[in-house]
Amino acid sequence: VVGTNTPKAEPIVAFPNPAQSTIRLKGIGDGTVISIVNVVGQEVFNGTVQGDLDVSGYENGVYFIQIKGSKKEVEKVGKFVVFR
Asked: Are 67 and 75 in contact (CB under 8 A)?
């Protein structure tokens, strides 16, 4: 839509990226509920984050981090790669 001034949310940044065993997320607060989905849309994590997130059990590939709002729409998104 032309002419809207909707502010863009700060993106979620995962580091290190690519990751091997853990990632830290920037752009969200501790205790925020997130979901992580793989490239085929399967949810591999849904829960709260406190500090580092263990991704050691994830297969190599690209993953998307999502924060959903009260109406279940995606408000923030980020991505990271697991590569060993």
From this structure: yes
Supply the pTM of this predicted model: 0.84
Contacts of range 32-38, beta carbons closer than 8 Å, 24 or more positions apart:
32/67, 33/67, 33/68, 34/65, 34/66, 34/67, 35/65, 35/66, 35/68, 36/63, 36/64, 36/65, 36/66, 37/63, 37/64, 37/66, 38/62, 38/63, 38/64
* Dist CA 78 CA 36 (whole Å): 9
pLDDT digits (tens, 9 = 90+) for 10-49: 689 999 999 999 999 998 888 889 999 999 999 999 999 8
* Strand spans (E) along the chain: 13-15, 22-26, 33-38, 43-48, 53-54, 61-68, 74-82
